[in-house]
Amino acid sequence: MRAAAADAGASGSAELARLVGEAAASAGRADRVAALLATVDAGGQALHEIDDALAGAAAAAGDDPVLAAAVELRAAVRANIGAGDPVLARAAAARSAELARRGGDRAGEAMALTMRARMERITGDPAAAGTLAAALDLDVPIETIGVQRCPQYLAARHAVFDDRLDEARGRLLRLLAVAERRGDAEDLEEVLRSLAEVDVRRGACARALEWSDRAVDVCAAAGLSPGPVWYTAAVAQTAGGDLDRAAELARRAVRASRQEHDLVFLSRGLLALGVAQLAAGRAADAVTALRRVAESEGRQRVADPCWTRWSPTPAWSGRRRCARRPGAGTTRRRPGSATAPPDSRRWRCRWRRAGRCWRRAGSSAPGGAGPPPSPISRKLPGSSSRRGRGRGAGWRRRRWTVRRRPPGPR
After folding, report:
1. Total-model pTM
2. Residue 26: what pLDDT?
3. Which 3-state string (H, E, C) describes the chain?
4. CA distance 290 to 66
5. Torsions phi, psi of 371, nearest 5?
């Protein structure tokens, strides 16, 4: 019964999970908890709808530490995605790790420590690296707990956030083989999305589009929540595809995430929309979207600037790399537009226009609060380190330096 419940949860089929739950209604405590947690797992990103199943699983688990640890782990995921509260999620993950340790469940402890490290990274807690190392030291086989919840996958994600791209790609390709071997659609989609993100940052945008297309196909075939894959597809299209298509995919990601109350990918969808609009020259629309990202992540208390890079500079720079790197494929644009991205001067003008829109929007906000000034002055992409030598150097440096801009990259 527990194996059937695990398969139902991994399938993403709420109907199959419901049938397993009905069959387990008269079974033992462990089977009842497994069936209820399968309903939670099958909910995908729509975790706001599973509160009753989670409460039932907690009641059925009783004082069994291993079962209670599994319930607390789902509560941590619910707090992060559905409530947008990484602090609450970290507390639930810490309780799950302690319960699993008390019950001698190494696999459960590894998953809980991984979740705790993820929340610590989001909130900027320096303990995240140590927590992740503790999870890796348990040396639980990936096949036992799956790719998405294993510490090896989080280590790959941290490498992505820190721009250790070669390391991240190597880790993800090894995890891809495991995901394909296990046949778990959600695990496979996660790895494919991460590979697309890595290749966007590396400038291999034709390859990134292939990864994102595969992820969309897996999602559609398995009936998984579409918000995450549409976000990734929008990022890949912005970097090396069609900007109108990118904006449409980002809007789909926003709609799907809003319907499922997925606050994490609602912010990311808005980010992808803002970056696509800025790249297309719609600076005022981009500022509106990016301000919504800032407000959303402020409410969620996201402190790590690498978690969601909502400054458009990295994405635009990735698009420039894609167009210029040999073998990266063509950069497809709207009919009648240039195939290459605009030069650095046009980018600088576009960025200054976005900054003016941002300041006007900030001045009309309650209290007249505009964007906080950047603590470090930063030159725009494409500006040369040689610029500004000789007569008038100070004026030119000031001219091409952003002193006041949306908060730093996420």
Report:
1. 0.73
2. 55
3. CHHHHHHHHHHCCHHHHHHHHHHCCCCCHHHHHHHHHHHHHHCCCCHHHCHHHHHHHHHHHCCCHHHHHHHHHHHHHHHHHCCCCHHHHHHHHHHHHHHHHHHCCHHHHHHHHHHHHHHHHHCCCCCHHHHHHHHHHCCCCHHHHCCCCCHHHHHHHHHHHCCCHHHHHHHHHHHHHHHHHHCCHHHHHHHHHHHHHHHHHHCCHHHHHHHHHHHHHHHHHHCCCCHHHHHHHHHHHHHHCCHHHHHHHHHHHHHHHHHCCCHHHHHHHHHHHHHHHHHCCCHHHHHHHHHHHHHHHHHCCCCCCCCCCCCCHHHHHHHHHHHHCCCCCCCCCCCCCCCCCCCHHHHHHHHHHHHHHHHHHHHCCHHHCCCCCCCCCEECCCCCCCCCCCCCHHHHHHHCEECCCCCCCC
4. 42
5. -70, 140
- Give Cα separations from 351 to 62, 109, 260, 340, 356 (angstroms): 57, 46, 33, 18, 9
Distance, CA of 147 to CA of 376 (rounded, Å)? 38
Q: Which residue type is seen at 179? A: A
Q: How far apart are CA 317 and CA 409, in angstroms?
A: 13
Q: Rounded distance, CA 56 to CA 24, Å?
A: 13
| 402 strand-pairing partners | 378
pLDDT (tens digit per residue) in 213-254 = 999 999 999 888 899 999 999 999 999 999 999 999 999 999
The span from the CA of 80 to the CA of 300, in Å, is: 9
pLDDT at 368 over 60: no
Cβ neighbours around 366 below 10 Å, total? 5
- Residue 381 near residue 347 (C-beta atoms within 8 A): yes
327 phi/psi in degrees, rounded to 5? 80, 5
Cα separation of 20 and 10, whole Å?
Answer: 13
Say which residues have a Cβ less than 8 Å from residue 18's Cβ, sequence separation at least 6. Answer: 39
Beta bridge partners of 378: 402
User: Cβ(181)–Cβ(211) under 8 Å?
Assistant: no
